[in-house]
């Protein structure tokens, strides 16, 4: 553990800070890395009380543990981070001991940032964040602050403050959350079988979603779909 993180932990301990955290990410190795980096409670003040790899697991673990903060990946099997937020809305809105969410994702796409903030997340940081800054972000979110990686806050300000332009792509709004997930994976070059495995659905269901996406966006094939998604920075 870095000297900076040890210093951050000493400060947290000195202030008596303690945060119970759930890690939600579909990559086990990443969860293990975050746990190792920030989960030494005696040093950082952060206690990892649960982990989850998909939407259903996340909702179950969050309801069972009632953490102060959830570190939430945006792209998850079963409906994505937005679906976790939707299903945990009562916990976020609790008068006493609300559960607060901080998105932690590799994506810095405006659509992803805006989507989870609309869903109720208190902030959004990318996976390039240091352990020291992540610990600090956890405590800030626990206290009710909004936390963003540099430049991402601008997406939110543009989306929610601008009266000149709509905050959401109207074409994208026609798609369901699952259709958006399939769209991203298709645009990234995944085969139907790979998408089915990633999202825990059948190949036939993937085909149905692709057909629906093409119809709603008035596109002819996956190549046009890839260009469409790339132009909107969804890939």
UniProtKB/TrEMBL annotation:
Keyword entries, A-Z: DNA-binding, Phosphoprotein
GO molecular-function terms, A-Z: DNA binding
Modified residues (4-aspartylphosphate): 73
Signal sequence region: none
Record Pfam families: GerE, Response_reg
HTH luxR-type domain mapped to chain residues: 168-233
Domain Response regulatory: 20-142
SMART domains (alphabetical): HTH_LUXR, REC
Biological process annotations from GO: phosphorelay signal transduction system; regulation of DNA-templated transcription
InterPro entries: CheY-like_superfamily (IPR011006), NreC/VraR/RcsB-like_REC (IPR058245), Sig_transdc_resp-reg_C-effctor (IPR016032), Sig_transdc_resp-reg_receiver (IPR001789), Tscrpt_reg_LuxR_C (IPR000792), WalR-like (IPR039420)
PANTHER family tied to this protein: TWO-COMPONENT RESPONSE REGULATOR (PTHR43214)
Protein name per UniProt: DNA-binding response regulator
Organism this protein belongs to: Streptomyces corynorhini
